[in-house]
Design a protein that fits this description.
There is one protein chain. The protein has 195 residues and is mainly alpha-helical. It has a two-stranded parallel sheet. α3 links the parallel β1 and β2. The longest helix is centred in the first third of the chain and has 33 residues.
Length: 195
């Protein structure tokens, strides 16, 4: 008795291809336009070389616009808010470019020194507390896990379990745990203590 059924591997490959066809088409369009933009230097802005314009009139003849956005740093997990915020400034840069301005959008050209320094200081303290392998003593881990945020307030009402800090850290207690969740090795994490 012969079977007309296709091999399972062929069916699976065809199904996967069908499922990702729209995504693959969009990614191909994205690559095409990224190549075009790179070739034409759309996102590159040079200083105007118009010597006929007095320095005080330079901005009137060649208007400029600049926006920036911070690098997401390791104080918590990435979330939709990051994409929402960066898309607004990216849209603004494109709009200003369409208006004829020399629009510059240098990602991460702003002052983030203090939060980064604070995170580096946390790593340094955690290295002192737990060593280079970040081994949290079992008794401390037990004490931390017993802490409850479910305690009732006056009047019998309860607070929510997810605070802003918990949302940012993914319920991690230490900076090194946040960074481990991002796939970093202990050796890489330790380097941040010297930032």
């Amino acid at each position: 008795m012969t079977s007309n059924a296709k091999p399972a591997a062929v069916d699976l490959a065809a199904e996967e291809s069908r499922k990702t066809a729209k995504r693959d088409a969009l990614m191909a369009i994205e690559k095409q336009w990224q190549g075009d933009w790179e070739h034409r230097g759309v996102f590159e802005v040079d200083m105007p070389s118009d010597d006929s314009v007095a320095p005080e009139d330079l901005h009137d003849k060649h208007p400029k616009w600049m926006g920036t956005f911070p690098f997401p740093y390791m104080n918590g997990v990435l979330h939709l808010g990051h994409a929402f915020s960066v898309s607004k400034i990216e849209f603004a840069a494109g709009w200003e470019r369409l208006q004829g301005k020399r629009a510059l959008f240098p990602f991460g050209f702003h002052v983030t020194g203090m939060p980064i320094k604070a995170a580096a200081d946390k790593i340094a303290r955690e290295l002192e507390m737990f060593g280079p392998e970040f081994a949290v003593p079992e008794e401390l881990e037990t004490q931390l896990s017993e802490l409850s945020v479910d305690s009732p307030k006056a009047g019998g009402t309860f607070r929510g379990k997810k605070t802003k800090v918990a949302a940012k850290t993914g319920n991690k207690k230490y900076q090194f745990q946040i960074m481990q969740d991002q796939g970093m090795s202990n050796a890489e994490i330790a380097k941040f203590a010297h930032a």
